[in-house]
Q: What sequence folds into this?
């Protein structure tokens, strides 16, 4: 997989997948850096290089690392302004998204993960109710014997 005299088109190695990619163009490398798929610690081999080196050591990609914005951990949809007068219309215009399988699956997962805790709480509630019911029956009987 080694390229023959590919000037400016390095080979890339992914530590995560343990695969080699390339030859790949410098524009593709810059795009992958911008997307967060490559970091300065990613390994690359330039044209004529015999050993791997970090991508941050390539002078031609130094500007790509300084311009790169950090990737968000999760997608955050852009919300409307908090005091937008049309927020009610926006909410009512959306179609409802009811995902029954996911809802039931999440409920079952919660039940399975907390079965002991839930059983204990139900038992405590049952005992408490039993005490009050028996107390309401016993108190009038004891009052008659006085």
A:
């Amino acid at each position: 997989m080694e390229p023959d005299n590919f000037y400016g088109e390095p080979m890339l190695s992914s530590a995560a997948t343990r695969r080699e990619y390339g030859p790949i163009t410098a524009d593709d490398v810059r795009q992958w850096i911008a997307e967060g798929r490559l970091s300065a610690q990613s390994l690359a081999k330039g044209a004529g290089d015999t050993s791997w080196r970090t991508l941050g050591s390539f002078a031609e990609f130094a500007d790509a690392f300084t311009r790169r914005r950090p990737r968000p951990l999760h997608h955050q949809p852009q919300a409307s302004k908090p005091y937008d007068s049309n927020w009610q219309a926006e909410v009512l215009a959306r179609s409802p998204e009811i995902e029954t399988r996911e809802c039931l699956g999440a409920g079952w997962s919660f039940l399975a993960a907390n079965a002991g805790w839930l059983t204990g709480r139900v038992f405590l509630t049952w005992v408490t109710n039993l005490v009050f019911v028996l107390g309401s029956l016993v108190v009038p009987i004891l009052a008659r014997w006085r």
Summary: The first helix runs from residue 26 to 35.
